[in-house]
Design brief:
With 58 residues, the chain is an alpha+beta fold. It has one domain (1-58): Roll (Structural Genomics Hypothetical 15.5 Kd Protein In mrcA-pckA Intergenic Region, Chain A). The protein has two helices and two strands. It has helices spanning 18-25, 31-39, and strands at residues 43-45, 48-50. The protein has a two-stranded antiparallel ribbon with strand order 1-2. A hairpin with a 2-residue loop joins β1 and β2. The longest helix is centred in the middle third of the chain and has 9 residues, at 31-39. The radius of gyration is 11 Å and the shape is globular.
């Protein structure tokens, strides 16, 4: 089962790491679980797959 979550990023989160941002938004998952999702190509930013947890917003 796939679940799609969509988040808008405001300027306060500009230059924040993707894994840290998602951890703040998805309290049910650990940061390790979030990193695994990112590495397994399950996370997108503006329809682009991101596979680097340390990727920062721009």
């Amino acid at each position: 089962m796939n679940i799609n979550l969509i988040f808008k990023v405001c300027l306060l989160h500009n230059k924040q790491r993707l894994d840290v941002f998602l951890k703040e938004k998805i309290l049910q998952l650990s940061r390790t679980q979030i990193k695994k999702l990112i590495i397994c190509n399950k996370v997108q930013i503006n329809y682009n797959i991101i596979n680097t947890p340390k990727k920062k917003f721009f």
